[in-house]
């Protein structure tokens, strides 16, 4: 499918990026100021400052509960802190990253349904409230979305444009490197590496698959080896997986939100930690993982009901993790997301029925994200980086078709 933009369309995209940047900077620097940090934000900032100071990726000895984190986002913060930047600089840089991400969403839209769909997708992404406020938080989602969506756009274009007998192994390798790096930012990308590799093999793109796998491994395996050796146990990326797994899989879990949305789980966590005083985050990872697996094995029917709830909460913003926010936040979320969900699903249905070549890479992104939510739990932070852009692409395809998209 031809996706090269005309000079006028390129100017349109540049204007969309400029508008996106202004909106994100305005929200981050003028509205979201002097807000308290969440536990995750506090931890990321601590790791970033300690890395910048040369102390390594370690927490301060403050007696607080800490979790093992992947290295990608703390390194990103350390690069900003290391040149004298502070929290304001982080929000400004993330606003720039978020603005450039709309180009990746536009590229995905163009690959799915033509250039006009790409323009519509980029414009929608520039104005979409959850993507506007995401860069204001000192959290990994903005960086993750940029890397994984650009990797997906690059992979998709190469997979569709190149003939199987003459693959561009360098481009597949770059796509693998990007998605591998995204796993260092958020380990939820690890299943995506497996899904994409399997897809390339099934399409008989073996050289492409080898290039993709090797590049993804070069990005992830060195850290996995270092982490596993230093913790005396296998840790794929970070040891935060155990606590997240247990939070979403125990007898008090409801399928949505972390501990802040479920005080009963938070109280149970305090009891567990009291039983394992002195264990570090990596050692506690094994404790939490064992408790979660034990719950699933002993309560299979309850767990299946819980999985249904997770799936519903993945798509519908009605869980307690949403309700704990302000009324303004809820109103903006529902007004922006619910129409997008309806039009986006309709657009994807149109793509399934009318496109011979399905947007397979986006399907894999969606599948991987939903699977992660089912394994752990649903939350807005897990949804917005991938599912919302995918819905924007679906909506853009439908809108462009109604406008007479012919490319």
Write a concise synopsis of the structure shown:
With 407 residues, this protein is an all-alpha fold. 72% of the residues lie in helices and 0% in strands. The protein is globular and about 65 Å long.
Verbal overview:
With about 400 residues, this protein is mostly helical. The chain has one domain. Helices cover about 70% and strands about 0% of the residues. The chain contains 19 helices and no strands. The relative contact order is 0.12.
What letter string, H or E per element, gives the SSE order? HHHHHHHHHHHHHHHHHHH
* Contiguous uncertain segments of 5+ residues: none
Please tell me how large the radius of gyration is.
21 Å
Residue fraction in strands: under 5%
Secondary structure class reads mainly alpha
* Biggest sheet descriptor: none
Q: How many alpha or pi helices?
A: 19
Distance linking N and C termini: 8 Å
What's the number of extended β-strand segments? 0
Tell me the count of domains. Answer: 1
Mean of all residue-level pLDDT scores = 90
Give the overall form: globular
Helix content range? over 70%
List the main descriptive attributes of the protein structure presented here.
407 residues; mainly alpha
Give the arrangement of secondary structure elements.
Layout (H helix, E strand, L loop, with lengths): L6 H25 L7 H14 L19 H10 L5 H27 L1 H13 L1 H5 L7 H21 L7 H17 L4 H13 L3 H26 L9 H8 L14 H13 L5 H18 L1 H16 L4 H4 L3 H28 L5 H16 L4 H4 L3 H16 L5
Helix pairs in contact: 1-4, 1-5, 2-3, 4-5, 4-7, 4-19, 5-19, 7-8, 7-17, 8-10, 9-10, 9-17, 11-13, 14-17, 16-19
């Amino acid at each position: 499918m031809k996706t090269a933009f005309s000079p006028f369309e390129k100017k349109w995209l540049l204007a969309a990026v400029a508008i996106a940047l202004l909106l994100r900077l305005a929200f981050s620097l003028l509205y979201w100021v002097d807000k308290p940090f969440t536990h995750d934000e506090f931890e990321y900032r601590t790791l970033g400052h300690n890395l910048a100071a040369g102390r390594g990726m370690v927490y301060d000895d403050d007696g607080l509960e800490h979790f093992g984190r992947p290295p990608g986002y703390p390194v990103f913060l350390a690069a900003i802190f290391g040149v004298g930047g502070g929290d304001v600089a982080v929000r400004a840089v993330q606003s720039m990253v978020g603005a450039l991400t709309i180009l990746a969403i536009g590229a995905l839209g163009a690959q799915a349904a033509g250039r006009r769909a790409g323009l519509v997708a980029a414009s929608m992404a520039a104005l979409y409230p959850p993507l506007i406020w995401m860069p204001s938080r000192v959290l990994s989602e903005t960086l993750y979305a940029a890397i994984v969506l650009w990797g997906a756009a690059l992979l998709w274009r190469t997979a569709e444009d190149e003939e199987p007998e003459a693959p561009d192994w360098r481009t597949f390798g770059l796509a693998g490197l990007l998605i591998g790096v995204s796993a260092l930012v958020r380990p939820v990308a690890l299943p995506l590496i497996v899904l994409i590799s399997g897809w390339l093999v099934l399409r008989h793109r073996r050289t492409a698959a080898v290039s993709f796998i090797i590049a993804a491994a070069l990005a992830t395996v060195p850290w996995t080896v270092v982490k596993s050796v230093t913790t005396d146990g296998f840790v794929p990326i970070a040891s935060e997986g155990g606590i997240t797994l247990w939070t979403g899989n125990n007898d008090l879990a409801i399928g949505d939100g972390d501990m802040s949305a479920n005080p009963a789980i938070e109280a149970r966590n305090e009891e567990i930690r009291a039983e394992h005083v002195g264990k570090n985050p990596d050692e506690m990872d094994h404790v939490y993982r064992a408790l979660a697996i034990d719950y699933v094995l002993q309560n299979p029917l309850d767990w299946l009901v819980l999985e249904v709830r997770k799936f519903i909460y993945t798509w519908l913003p009605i869980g307690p993790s949403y309700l704990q926010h302000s009324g303004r936040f809820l109103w903006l979320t529902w007004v922006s997301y619910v129409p997008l969900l309806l039009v986006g699903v309709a657009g994807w249905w149109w793509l399934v029925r009318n496109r011979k070549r399905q947007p397979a890479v986006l399907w894999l992104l969606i599948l991987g994200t939903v699977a992660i939510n089912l394994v752990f739990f649903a939350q807005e932070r897990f949804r917005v980086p991938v599912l919302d852009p995918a819905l924007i692409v679906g909506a853009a395809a439908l809108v462009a078709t109604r406008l007479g998209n012919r490319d």
